[in-house]
Amino acid sequence: MSSLRYSIVVDSGHIPDTGLIAKTAVSNGFVVDNVIPEIGAIFGRAENPGVVEKIRDIVGVEDIRPSRDVQLAPFDERIPQ
């Protein structure tokens, strides 16, 4: 089974706890790729969909949603960006 990528959103009252929430997510089977504590964002992946439900139950987690990649077109001097 392949890993699915997710973004965890920390609620505004728990932003100072973002690092602790990331550690708790790891202990529940989430693989953390990046944490941005200043805005309460945690990015990572999980192989098992059951992990997502466990993370939803962590105090301070507002939402967990699938991540989507965005790719910009290659830079071309002839095309305004």
Features:
single chain, 81 residues, alpha+beta, 4 strands, 22% helix, globular
Question: Can you give a write-up of this model?
Answer:
With 81 residues, this protein is of the alpha+beta class. The protein has a domain at 4-36 and 51-66. The protein is 22% helix and 31% strand. It contains two helices and four strands; from the N terminus they run βαββαβ. A four-stranded antiparallel beta sheet has the order 2-3-1-4, with helices on one face. The mean pLDDT is 91.
Overall morphology: globular
Largest sheet descriptor:
4 strands, antiparallel
Distance between the termini: 38 Å
Report the uncertain regions. Answer: none
- Please state roughly what percent of the residues sit in beta strands, choosing from under 5%, 5-15%, 15-25%, 25-35%, 35-45% or over 45%: 25-35%
Kindly provide the radius of gyration, computed on alpha-carbon positions and rounded to a whole number of angstroms: 15 Å
Number of helices: 2
SSE sequence, one letter per element: EHEEHE
Strand sequence of the main sheet, in spatial order? 2-3-1-4
Overall SS class:
alpha+beta
Helical content band: 10-25%
Strand tally is 4
What quaternary form is this? single chain
Mean pLDDT: 91
